[in-house]
Amino acid sequence: MSTNVNRRRTAIRRTAVSRPVALALSDGLLIPGRTFFDYGCGRGDDVQHLAALGFAANGWDPAHRPDGKRRPADIVNFGYVANVIEDPAERVDALKSAWALARVVLIVTARLE
Ligand SMILES: C[S@@+](CC[C@H](N)C(=O)[O-])C[C@H]1O[C@@H](n2cnc3c(N)ncnc32)[C@H](O)[C@@H]1O
Smallest Cα–Cα separation from 58: which of 29, 81, 38? Predict the structure, then answer.
């Protein structure tokens, strides 16, 4: 229980898109017409910023957006989620679930420090 409380608290507010999403935009992976799904979206700020830019963007998070529907998308973001899941088997399950939703690209980033 305390572990999940700590995971929940890792989600920060973002005043701009996260670095992985910014790179997806600048590298031409996330282009107009492509859909976006944020797997482990935290407080949902990447989803909101992308929606404001005109993208069809959705997200799910077990702590912050548990009612969000996990749905396929062209670009799926698994941003800074792997590093908050302590259990290796659960981490693999989550990664596979995110992969299964990705039609074109799965973005995976982790904080190592
Ligand atoms: C460091 S936050 C990153 C949030 C968001 N991706 C961002 O970059 O702002 C990690 C998030 O992973 C979520 N999380 C924890 N376990 C998860 C799981 N098994 N599957 C998906 N997300 C999970 C937490 O609830 C938390 O919101």
Answer: 38
